[in-house]
Amino acid sequence: MTTAREPLSRERVVEAALAVIDRAGIQGCSMRAVAGELGVEAMSLYHHVPGGKDEMLDGVVALVQTGFVDELDTTGDWRIDMGLFSRAYRAALTQHPNLVALIAARPSVAYRSSTGLVGSLFDAMEDAGFSREDALRAVRVVSRWTIGFTLGEASAVEDGESAEEFDEPLLVEVFTDIARGEDDVFEFGLEALLDGLEARLSA
Amino acid sequence: MTTAREPLSRERVVEAALAVIDRAGIQGCSMRAVAGELGVEAMSLYHHVPGGKDEMLDGVVALVQTGFVDELDTTGDWRIDMGLFSRAYRAALTQHPNLVALIAARPSVAYRSSTGLVGSLFDAMEDAGFSREDALRAVRVVSRWTIGFTLGEASAVEDGESAEEFDEPLLVEVFTDIARGEDDVFEFGLEALLDGLEARLSA
DNA sequence: ACCTGAACACCGTTCAAGT
DNA sequence: ACCTGAACACCGTTCAAGT
């Protein structure tokens, strides 16, 4: 009595890889582990992801990236949309903390999965009076700020070190604060950055 | 006739690891490769880096981090010093592009190597009238912004993809602009962020 | 004290072989 | 057409053995 097995597919391989990453981290995401997740041998994966592990990880990045981008409801107001984008990005990445470093390292895949959003942010900024050049700059600045912030957050948590283990009082203070959650710090930084961009408009 | 070999030491192991990372990337930095760089067998490294590869990589992060921090001449003016810090950090990381992802993933090591600088930034901000809470936030925001920006830069370059290979005109535009160098984008973002922080002071 | 050979339990990937 | 067994050239790490 064998349970019928759904046939493998690129989609199933990528989804299994994401599940393994969430559970065991990037380190734990070996081809053999992903195959195990699917009840299959490692070598079978190559039929659906011919480019091997690299293509599989690209697929995971694209999956998460398109997932959050598609749910965004932009308004056409640059400041509101930048905030929406940044907050939703952080929220999506926070659900997959082990993936943040991978996304940060593969900007071309991330961009490719977000052209619609990027285009509408450009348009909103130009409508508001920004030059095309500054719109290009601003989008890169905000998206890197968001990834950098979230990567720092995820790494500080996973870096394991409990705040009390530091010998420096200053480090205890900083890491105790980080452990308390960083929503307020994120909002502080995001609003400061958006204020700074807005100031460039009046200038 | 044997050439006299300098004895191994923790310092020499860490320096060799940095050299391998610069040449061959994080992927290429295996214990065996670092040992080869030193003309030694892999197992010898463990006598000087008992914690294994992880401790070795921590050492590399600390080496680069203390290197740039120690050269900084702070002024006591928060805005000038934040700018100094951010620009010098980016400059240091840009000299070791393969290391940026590692530094981003090990914030506790990076912080530990920078307590003096972090403390003087806190002081400068409090002197200027920021609350301790906002000073804590601002330092984290600026340092993550800098790492995030530089990681994005390094990754976009190394991501290999030449701009012309994209099918989307928008992506060609973005990646052509990135390939042109991003000094102006960095300055644009940094000044915007500092402006935004300064605005929090008057409020 | 410092270095190493051999071994263990893993990797990603290829390729010929099975069904 | 789709999956796999065996194999290759690598990993990090341990540990007993060499000098």
Count of distinct strands of chain A = 0
Distance between the termini of chain A: 74 Å
Number of alpha- plus pi-helical segments of chain A: 10
- CATH fold descriptor of the largest domain in chain A: Tetracycline Repressor, domain 2
- Our Rg estimate of chain A from Cα atoms comes to 20 Å
Total domain modules of chain A: 2
- Please state the second-level CATH architecture of the largest domain in chain A: Orthogonal Bundle
Could you name the ranges of chain A where pLDDT drops below 50 across 5 or more consecutive residues?
none
CATH class of the largest domain in chain A: Mainly Alpha
Order of helices and strands of chain A: HHHHHHHHHH
Biggest chain-to-chain interface with counts: A-B, 54 and 54 residues
Average pLDDT number of chain A: 93
Q: What quaternary form is this? A: homodimer
Estimate what percentage of residues of chain A fall within beta strands: under 5%
Helix share bin of chain A:
55-70%
Tell me about this structure:
2 copies of one chain form a homodimer. Chain A is built from 10 helices and no strands. Chain A is mostly helical and 203 residues long. Chain A has 2 domains: 1-50, Homeodomain-like (Arc Repressor Mutant, subunit A, Orthogonal Bundle); 61-202, Tetracycline Repressor, domain 2 (Orthogonal Bundle). Chain A is flat, with a radius of gyration of 20 Å. Chain A binds a DNA duplex (19 and 19 nucleotides) through loops.
